[in-house]
Amino acid sequence: MWSSSPKIAAGDTVVVWMTRDSIQPLVVAPGKDLNSKYGNYRHADFVGVPYGSKIASRTGQGFLYLLRPTPELWTLALPHRTQILYIADIAFITSRLNIKPGARVIEAGTGSGSFTHSVARSIGDSGHLWSYEFHEARANKAREEFLRHGMTDTVTLTHRNVCRDGFTVDNIVDAVFLDLPAPWDAIDHAKKTLRKDRITRICCFSPCMEQVLRTVSALNDAGFTEITMYETLLRPHEVSQIPQLQSIGHVSQKLKEAEKRREEKRLRQIANNKARLNTTTTLTKRKRDDPLDNNDNDNDYSTEHDLPPSEAKRVKSSETEAVDKDEMMIKVDDDDTTTHNRGGSTLPVSKQSRISVSNALPDVRGHTSYLTFAVLVPLLSTPPHEDEMAEQQPSGSG
Ligand SMILES: C[S@@+](CC[C@H](N)C(=O)[O-])C[C@H]1O[C@@H](n2cnc3c(N)ncnc32)[C@H](O)[C@@H]1O
To answer: Where are stretches of biased composition, namely Low complexity (predicted)?
Structure first.
């Protein structure tokens, strides 16, 4: 599959990676240009550069990477002609169907060939994949791609309605994968293709539960066992950088210092208020002794608690302000600290050094389909294959 040369040659298929959301396949054809919002490039400039190179646009205002295709990259880059399978499902199906080098596999329908590329790599040159597609234009397009990607020795593509006409091979394959709107119509045909000298496996990929129920019934009726349904979900993680957390000792020391500063400030503030109060009392006394002032409502306030409400409020608010300023001072003093909410508690952290953390995003990426697996066990009269016991997978628990 694809070129294994270290350098790109004319006619090679490359995966052009512009951004995570902009990945496309390209057949290098000197004489042609690639124009995108990430710049203009000449295919001729791609020839001879190593796979994986970063290429600057002709104006120098953009860049892209030229990657060697892999089945994973192909799934991200391929032209969609249908819904496709993505890597999480492909990996799980490949594992549960025990698809490995040398395996013989059937898939229907071919669709956009996403699953086909992965299986072709897994089975290698010693295995074989029979792929079926009843939409003629899609089948032709897929055939062209498989030829260009050097897969034709491994993959046989047939234009055919498998539900009506069945498959082209009998009693030979190790695993069948059905990605069809009505897989139950193909299950009896699939059973004929599976070899009967060892345990074989089937998987049906269906987007809704009604299809799963019909598939399960058909599998039961056809004599399959260990029928198990799975749903594969992806939980993305977001990696970000946060400041390094301080040690508990450091944090405790900082808190003690801040507490001490606050207490000193408070005592200073009380002393100031007392001094101001003495001045106020002297003035009031003078006023009372003044024969010209006969306002009977004036009182003699001896402590800060005896101040008239307006004065008490002013003193109180200046004290609070002082404490608030003190809090601010703590923050200013601790300029190397900030807060980071971690697991519900707020911890002081340093801005100096940063660490990477990974947070699971709360939304789990949407369901693509349900995967119904089943096993076909050889009849007792058939002698078991010698590898069979060694290769049996543990039965599913799901
Ligand atoms: C969802 S697509 C398969 C996508 C494919 N698994 C991939 O990863 O790219 C389903 C394909 O099955 C084909 N199909 C539907 N019914 C079929 C049938 N009875 N026989 C063969 N192909 C069929 C459709 O034309 C379509 O291309």
So the answer is: 271-283
Q: Give CA–CA dist 74/25, Å, rounded.
A: 8
Position with higher pLDDT, 340 vs 287: 287
Helix (H) or strand (E) holding 25: strand 22-27
Q: Which residues of 284-315 are buried (b: 16+ CB within 10 A; e: fewer)?
A: eeeeeeeeeeeeeeeeebeebeebeeeeeeeb
Question: What pLDDT score does 389 carry?
Answer: 57
81 CA closest ligand 1 atom index = 27
Name the residue ranges covered by the structural domains of the chain: 13-69, 73-236+366-391, 247-358
Q: Which protein residue's CA is at the shortest distance from atom 14 of ligand 1?
A: 109
Q: Is the CB of 148 under 6 A from ligand 1?
A: no
Contacts of 256 (CB under 8 A, 6+ apart): none
Domain 13-69 classification at class level: alpha beta
Q: What is the pLDDT of residue 363?
A: 72
- Taking each helix axis as running N to C, give the angle between helix 87-96 and helix 114-123, from 0 to 180 degrees, rounded to the nearest 10: 40
Amino acid sitting at position 10 = A
Output the pLDDT for position 395: 46
Strands of 74-140 (E only): list them.
Answer: 104-108, 128-133
Nearest CA to ligand 1 atom 13: 109
Is 179 annotated as contributing to ligand binding?
yes
130 near 156, Cβ under 8 Å? yes
Q: Which DSSP symbol is given to 305?
A: G
Distance CA 137, CA 308 (A): 94
The b-or-e profile of 195-220 (16+ CB within 10 A means b, else e) is: beebbbbbbbbbeeeebbebbbebbe
Let me know: does 51 contact 67? Beta carbons within 8 Å.
yes
CA distances from 273 to 265, 280, 311, 318 (A): 12, 10, 11, 9
- Report the distance separating Cα 177 and Cα 195, nearest Å: 15
pLDDT at 316: 47
CATH code for the structural domain at 73-236+366-391: 3.40.50.150
Q: What is the 114 CA–ligand 1 centroid distance (Å)?
A: 11
* Residue 72 assigned as binding residue: no
Query: In sequence order, what are the beta bridge partners of 239?
Result: 358
Tell which wins on pLDDT, 379 or 56.
Answer: 56
